[in-house]
Protein: Shikimate kinase
Amino acid sequence: MASFGTISLVGMPGAGKSTVGVLLAKLTRLRFVDTDLDIQVRAGATLQEILDQYGYRHLRQLEEQVLLTIPLDHALISTGGSVVYSAASMQRLKAAGPVVYLRASLSTLEQRIAGAPLRGIASDTAQSFESVYAERTPLYEKYADLTVGADTGTAETVAMGILSELSR
Ligand SMILES: Nc1ncnc2c1ncn2[C@@H]1O[C@H](COP(=O)(O)OP(=O)(O)O)[C@@H](O)[C@H]1O
Ligand SMILES: O=C(O)C1=C[C@@H](OP(=O)(O)O)[C@@H](O)[C@H](O)C1
Ligand SMILES: [Mg+2]
Structure:
C-alpha cells in the first residue's frame, strides 16, 4: 500500500473534518491529530469556555500557536474551520503535505451544525453563518491542493474518495 506524508483537512464547521479525518487516518496509517483537541489541552479549557471568556480573536490566536508548534510529521491533521485566517499556519500545513478542502453546501452545514447547537465559531457572534461561509470559502479554495465534495455519501465514502484522489 502507498505510504502518505502529512495530509491536512480544512473546511467549514460541519464539513466532517474530524469525523472523516479519523477514518482517513486509519486508512492511511497516519497519526491522527485534531487541532481543536490540542488547543483545549494547551489552554486547559474547552473551546466554548475560551470563546465565552476571551472571545473569538483569542481562540484564533491559540489556534495559530498550536498550528505553528505541533509536530506535523506523518500525520492526518483535522483542523478547525478558522485555521484559514492564519496565513502562517496554512503555509506550514501546505509545506508538510496536501491540504484537502472538504467542501459542503451551506444547507448541509446548517443541518449538521443544528444538531450540535453548542458548537462555537471563531467569528463575531453578530456575523451570520451565511456571511462566515461567504467570507471563508475563497480562503479554503485558495489553500486547497485538492477539493472534495462532502455533501453526499457517508464519512467513510468521503474518506475513501480522498484516499483514491491522493493515490492517483
Ligand atoms: N459525510 C457525512 N455525512 C453525514 N454526516 C456527516 C458526514 N461527515 C460528518 N458528518 C456529521 O456532521 C457532524 C459534523 O462533523 P465533524 O466531523 O465534527 O465536522 P467538522 O470537524 O468539520 O466540524 C457530525 O455529527 C458528523 O457525524
Ligand atoms: O470554524 C470555526 O470558527 C471553529 C470551528 C471548530 O472546529 P470544527 O471546524 O472542527 O467544527 C473549532 O475550531 C472552533 O469552535 C471554531
Ligand atoms: Mg472538527
Summary: The beta strands are 7-10, 31-34, 75-78, 99-103, 146-149. The mean pLDDT is 96.
